[in-house]
Amino acid sequence: MADWEISKAAGHCCGTGKPLEPGQEYYAALVEGEQNLERRDFSTEYWEQARPGVYCFWRTRMPDETRKKRLLVSDEMLMAFFDRMAEETDTEKVNFRFVLALILMRKRKLKYESSQIREEAEIWTLRVTGEDRFVNVINPHLSEEQVDELSGQMGQILQVDL
């Protein structure tokens, strides 16, 4: 499995090159790179004018290094990201989505219902808590080390301790 190299906040707008000041709101986004998803940060001004093409995005605030930081990502945002990745077939993205499913299960947003083998892949059926819908996720049979590594990378992407 290849490593994901997702950077933390760059401190500047990728569109204009201007610095993002501590406390300033901006858009963090994932864009398709040559081999994986890459993070890009955009000032709100640039974002609203240029509307750059991205895979997924969220609005956040530039951390103030002098203050203790604890940025929270809503469960709704995690579910939206999970749903957005439903049709992905790339191995890295399938692995990423599976770990996100495990996190959502731990947060009790998804509940395991059943599994079945389809085309030599184990597919889990999960119930979305509080909704009358089910989602499927491929179990790629990751090792504990791979799950830990992907969880750490997700934390870097989302700037949260998972």
Label this structure with key terms.
162 residues; three-stranded antiparallel sheet
Side by side, the strands of the main sheet go 2-1-3
The biggest beta sheet is recorded as: 3 strands, antiparallel
Question: What fraction, in percent, of the residue positions are helical?
Answer: 25-40%
Q: Which stretches of 5+ consecutive residues score pLDDT under 50?
A: none
Distance between the termini: 21 Å
- Beta strands, count: 6
Number of structural domains: 2
Entry summary:
By secondary structure, this protein is an alpha+beta fold. It has helices at 44-50, 75-84, 91-106, 144-158; strands spanning 25-32, 37-43, 56-61, 110-118, 121-128, 134-139. Strands 2-1-3 form a three-stranded antiparallel beta sheet. Strands 4-5-6 form a three-stranded antiparallel beta sheet, covered by helices on one side.
